[in-house]
Design a protein that fits this description.
It comes from Aliiruegeria haliotis. The protein is about 15% helix and about 35% strand. It is an alpha+beta fold. The longest helix is centred in the N-terminal third of the chain and has 15 residues.
């Protein structure tokens, strides 16, 4: 009996020194946070270019008030079917990478990835793509107008 208890205590002490999932010291919230080295530059990467083209047309956009900010939703119309990975990208940003307004205008580009091979056009409804962007109350403080930009047009909403 004493041998089993001694073996159990030794096993617990050995596991406590490890970085295994059996170590109770590693049972933090969400599995515990670990700091790992990274090769990324301290101030981030400087490449600001998004390789995705701007969508052909912006059909519509709405700004809906939500707790803590607003959600900008835009419907775009690419030239053919098969486009994917749509995002509204802020043209102006703060040093911290947060969206910002310039002269009271928040400008969002509707960017999307084209298909590898052109696809036939069936109808407008089958080509429409929807994307949304959340803006916090802090980001909206100096905003008077929100504009979503496409290649052939832009749609704006004012306060």
């Amino acid at each position: 009996m004493k041998v089993q208890i001694l073996a159990g205590v030794i096993a617990v002490l050995v596991l406590a020194g490890c970085e295994s999932r059996y170590n109770p010291g590693n049972w933090g919230w969400f599995g515990g946070g670990r700091s790992e080295p990274t090769l990324a530059p301290r101030k981030g990467y400087v490449d600001d270019s998004d390789p995705r083209p701007v969508i052909d047309q912006v059909v519509s956009m709405t700004v809906d008030k939500v707790p803590g900010g607003a959600v900008v939703t835009a419907v775009g119309l690419p030239r053919t079917q098969g486009y994917y990975a749509a995002d509204l990208i802020s043209t102006y940003e703060t040093e911290a990478g947060k969206p910002a307004a310039k002269d009271g205008v928040m400008r969002l580009e509707f960017r999307i990835v084209p298909p590898r091979q052109p696809r036939p056009v069936v109808n407008q409804a089958s080509r429409e793509v929807v994307s949304a962007f959340y803006l916090s109350d802090q980001a909206l403080q100096s905003v008077r107008q929100i504009t979503v930009v496409g290649a052939r047009n832009q749609v704006s909403s004012r306060r």
